[in-house]
Hints:
The complex is a heterodimer of chains A (627) and B (127).
Chain A lengths: L1 H5 L4 H20 L5 H4 L4 E6 L6 H17 L5 E6 L8 H14 L7 E5 H15 L4 E7 L1 H7 L6 E4 L4 H11 L5 E5 L4 H13 L8 E5 L4 H9 L6 E4 L13 H11 L4 E2 L12 E4 L2 H16 L7 E2 L3 E5 H7 L11 E3 L5 H86 L5 H29 L8 E4 H18 L3 E4 L7 E4 L1 H21 L6 E9 L3 E7 L28 H11 L3 E6 L5 E8 L5
Parallel strand pairs in A: 1-2, 1-3, 3-4, 4-5, 5-11, 6-7, 6-8, 8-9, 12-13, 15-17
Antiparallel strand pairs in A: 10-12, 14-16, 17-18, 18-20, 19-20
Helix pairs in contact in A: 4-12, 5-6, 10-11, 14-15, 14-16, 14-17, 14-18, 16-17, 17-18
Chain B lengths: L6 E5 L3 H13 L3 E5 L2 H5 L7 E7 L7 H10 L5 E6 L4 H9 L4 E4 L4 H13 L5
Parallel strand pairs in B: 1-2, 1-3, 3-4, 4-5
Amino acid sequence: MARASTKPSSPFTRIASAFRCLLLLLIIVMAEPLSAEIVDQVPRILILYPYDEKIPATTIAGETLRHRLQQATMGKVDLFSEFLDLSRFPEKVHIDRMARYLSEKYADRRPDVVIALGEEATGFIVKYRHAIAPDAKIVFCCFSSADAVKLSLPSDVVGAFSEYDIAKTLLMARGLQPEARDLVIIGGSSDFDRSWLATARSDLPGPASGLKTTYVEDLTIDEFADRASRVPEGSIILVLTVFTDRSGRNFIPRNALERIAAKASAPVYGPYSTYIGHGAVGGNTVTFESVGTAVAELALDAIAGKPIASVNVPKTFVADARELTRWGLPESGLPAGTVLSFKEKSLWEEYWAAIIGIVAALALQGAIITVLLVERQRRLAAEQEARLRLLELVHLNQSATAGALSASIAHELNQPLGAIRSNVDALEILLRKEQPDLDLIRQILIDIREDDQRASDIIVRLRGLLKKRSEIDWQEFDLNEVVNSAIHILHAEAGQKSIVVSSSDPTRALPVRADKVHLQQVILNLATNAMDAMVDAATTERKLVFRTALIENSEVELSISDTGRGIPSDQLDHVFHAFYTTKPTGTGLGLSIARAIIETYGGKIWADNRAEGGAVFRFVLPLAQHG
Amino acid sequence: MESQPRKVAVVEDDPSMRKSVARLLNAHGFATEGYASAEAFLNRATSSEIGCIVLDVHLGGISGIELWHRLKDGGSKIKVIFITAVDDQALEQEAVKAGCVAYLHKPFPAESLIDAIERAMTVSPDD
């Protein structure tokens, strides 16, 4: 609001800001009775860390506290952090310098609340509060009420006490190890360590509890580890803190515990949550998270102007599931409400959603695969069926062609037979003579043999034409060869119809992969069509021309052109359709079968009209690659 | 005239057939002249010596039937014996009706050809 008044104000902004003031006032009246002083500005909270930012305990407490403050104020809080580093710089000159520095640093931004983490930070701020934060509420945490007494804190300084109860840690240990007879308690040589040992001695039950208790102290870290490795079987080992060992080495207590627990021959317990994950089975402790939350609540109450008083942070049992497993301790032996860390959930517990997802996905995949397999099976069956049908159809087509050509085939066969007969009859006469012309007889015999061969060849070709296929007989062969054999079959028919058949001289072999009989059938279909076309059209010149060619070194082409009447241009695409025919006796299947065959072998077939008249049918097939 | 071998023209496009028929006729004492086509026969140097023609029905180019018609149209009364490898009853009836000496289907026995030739020869071409 102060800011609003410094602005050059138009009537509108003035009205607007007045409205805003009213609104805010209304909110304040309706909300909790916050002090006007704090409402005026975003509250400033200074958090004092005793050491640097690397100490887990204060870092965890600090982070929890910051998070809680941010959350509760919806971010309307100014948080400051200072790391006093009092452990490494315990000298008074440093402490004084730090106090002066903070006093000057916060001169214009005096904190409303100072939160001190730990005894050292608390002692520091209590001593220098007038210089650094004269009007601030001071709250603290992370030590016990007994320690607070030693600090002789002013009555307005309150905090969240961490009351450790080592007896409860032992209670957890005995719950897990009811048969234990020996208790080994380990503590270091620092003042803090010794105060822990003293606490243990006073708080833990004596031998009356049935436990033979041994205190292990004044040793080096290796000696502690060694002793821990040689405790009686089934012992309980209780590690308090080892900040310093007998040799004067300093440790972060959890690291010291880690070294001891690594060698220990019995379960190790300790009163800190930071020990979890470093070899301790567990203990009763004040977690630093709960400390942070507790002190944050105090600070929030302070900025809200509520009266505040010291509280005890609730204690929790903590345990490490991996250590339970390591020592074979039953989870059921844990006190109720124990926070169990590192519990390895069963696969199902951890990943049930993923597992369901994966199983569902697999099931779906399986279903899809099954469907696809069934579909594939059906397609294969259908393809097989289609192939059989095609083979049947081709065979019918072959028979029809054979029928159509039978007259000319008979004619062709009668030529050698007739020649043989005449030769034999002539031979008979010649042999009756007294001095037969042996040279002539020999020549006649040679001719008979040749004609016999000629007749035999015709029969072989006819057999090829009638051969029925139950499956495709894949072969690699020269297309020219099939063209020649087709021409042979057609030759007589063409002769009768006064058609001159010619073929281009093959420049090279044109290997294709197919069933020879099928390709021959295609050629016969195309050629007989062409011949019929020429007979129907009263052309003077009847020429049937076969031409083979290699196209771009990858395809083989055969063209069959005639001098017939050609094909109406709008029907060029239809001629290959089944039942398309222009002939009164045609089935209309010849060309559709030809196309089915060519496509079966990966080729294409089409028709065109020649510029000089007549039609030309072409097909291409893939060139068979050798090797 | 009896001692002179009478000449028979064999017009047949199948070389082997032409040759074997010529041999058969030679063996029976006939002289022969072979022609591979009707055109070749029409273009022959002389026509005087021919006693009869053994003519293939289905010749490339001018067919045997057509050749006969042309000869008849040209006033020739030369006798013709048709030989054929094709069954074509209409053609056969027409040829027989038109007065061919014989219409033989290949393969035919020597006797039927020789018999037909003999019959053709007994009638003078001038009749």
